Amino acid sequence: MLQLDAIYKAAHVLKEVVRRIDLIYAPQINPESTVYLKPENLQLTGSFKVRGAYYKISQLSDEEKARGVIACSAGNHAQGVALAATKCGIKSLICLPEGAPISKVEATKHYGAEVCLVPGVYDDAYQKALQLRDEKGYTFVHPFDDENVIAGQGTIGLELLEEMPDVEVVIVPIGGGGLISGVAYALKALKPSVKVYGVQALGAASMANSILHSRIERLHSVSTFADGIAVKEPGTNTFDLVNQYVDGVVTVTEDEIAAAILALIERQRIVAEGAGAVSVAAAMFNKVPVKGKKTVCLVSGGNIDVTILSRVISRGMA
Question: Which of 143, 147, 144, 145 is nearest to 4 (CA)?
Fold first, then answer.
């Protein structure tokens, strides 16, 4: 089981690796609330994913490190694992779906990983990664359903409380649930009164559906331009942690995500990808109770493809 000690240990390990990014006051997001942003889009590799990946890899045995690591990802986890493995002097192989944005594929190579493009979607890349793990003996670094990965992501919760001890509401994007699991666990352990809400794209509401029906549910398909959270099925660990520590999971539409991305660009000069902007969309459109509350929206990533960005801006303006 996840322990608070592991998150503190992860924070110590990550001290030399991750950027410490201050909260940004964003009053225009919702005038009825005091909104701050935690801009993990400014993190190394452009997302929070480097935290969990680096901590996971740092805890491997010498034998596991010698065999190298393998991962699958739509993009951000790939870059996190690639950078973490390179920093630790370990070989990394990343399986990406063929349709992944070219910018994310090139960035993954830039951070030192070997890339294997797999026909199909994320789930096909996942199966290919498991097959290569069994064939070659690599250590698999799961994007979200792993205790050490979750502990690494949970370091954000410690930072939030350190900088804003009186925070009342924290809004977190959900794909597979690794980020919110770590953040919610840390927050609730140290300040039980804080409310933690998760946000998914309406077209990829796997965790929202699972929580609603009290069992893990797998979607037949996902449809959202927020590729970073387009996950068909939450993890076993993450489902349990969200069930226990999260106060609610809501959804936002594609138009609401587009409006949030545009608002961040226009008002805060921040570029967020769809997955990173869902928390802001939830605050903007009052999907969670933030009125009169000191609120933090976690902007989880900024790796948006330029072609998608231009379409999103047009949509947001419309």
Answer: 147
